[in-house]
UniProtKB/TrEMBL annotation:
PANTHER family: NICKEL ABC TRANSPORTER, ATP-BINDING PROTEIN, OLIGOPEPTIDE TRANSPORT ATP-BINDING PROTEIN APPD. Residues 1-225 form the ABC transporter domain. It comes from Geodia barretti. GO terms for cellular component: plasma membrane. This is Nickel import system ATP-binding protein NikD. The lineage of its organism: Eukaryota, Metazoa, Porifera, Demospongiae, Heteroscleromorpha. GO terms for molecular function: ABC-type nickel transporter activity; ATP binding; ATP hydrolysis activity.
Amino acid sequence: MAGETLGLVGESGCGKSVSALSLMRLIPDPPGKTVGGEVLFDGEDILQIDMDDMRRIRGAKMAMVFQEPMTSLNPVLTLDRQLTETIQLHLGKSRDEARKDAVDLLVRVGISDAERRIRQYPHQFSGGMRQRVMIAMALSCNPQLIIADEPTTALDVTIQAQIINLLEDLQERYNLTYLFIAHDLSVVRHISDRVAVMYLGKIVEVADRNAIYENPQHPYTRALLSAVPIPDPVLDAQRERIILTGEVPSPLNPPSGCVFHPRCPIVTDDCSRVNPEARQVLPDHIAACINVPGYGPY
C-alpha cells in the first residue's frame, strides 16, 4: 500500500538483497534468470517488459538505497555531477534547473551548506552523510517506491537512528512506500508497518509487525525472535530460546518439501514431502507451514 513500509528480515545469505536486485532487474541475465513468479508494479508485471521500459521505471518510479554508499557513488565525480545528471536523464530538466533541484535535495536530507558541499566528492563525506546522499539520489526523480537494502548496517548506533528518523520524516512528507531490508529485528520493528520473514529464498511468514513480534506462527520466525536480546535480564533469562541445529542448506541444492524441515523443531514426516504455499492462518497473517494451526488441509 502507498505510504507503507514492508520490512524484510532473515539471516545473512537467505536472499534478501538478491530479491531487492531482482525487483529492480539489476541482476545480469545470464548468469541470473527468472525461474518463476511475477512482480506487479502499477498493475504491470515488470519482469515481462523490455529493458528500455524498465530503465524508465527505475529511478523515476522506483529507486534503491544500497548498504554501502561508496560502492554505489562514483568516487571520481562530484555530487553535483551525479545528482544533476540523474535528474536531467529522468526528468528532462535543463542543467540549471537540475542543479537547483540537486541542492534542494541535499537540504531535504539534512546536509548543511549544500551549495558548497555539492561540489565535493564522495570520499569527503562521512559514512552517515554518504548515506544521506544516497537517499537524496533515490528521491531525485520523485519515486513511488524506495527499496532500502540494509541502509544502516555499516553505521554506528547514533547515526543509524538519524537515518531511520530521516526516512520516516521523508515518508510522512511525501507518502513514500518503502521495502526496508535488514537483519536487525529491532530496527525493522521500529520502522515497518508489516514484516515479511525469508528463509532460504522463500517468504515463510507475513503479517502486521505487532502480530509477527508478539504472535509469530512459523517455527523459523519463532526461532529468529527468540534470539533477540531483551534489555531486562530477568525476563531474558526466563524466555524460552529455540536453538536450531544443523547448517542452512545450499540454495543451489535445496531440500525436498519444506526448505526449513531439516532444522525445524516441530518437523513431521510430511514436511519432507510437502512444499507448503503461504496461506492465511489468522486474519491478515500468512505463513508457509503445514503444522501451523489454521493452515488447513494440504
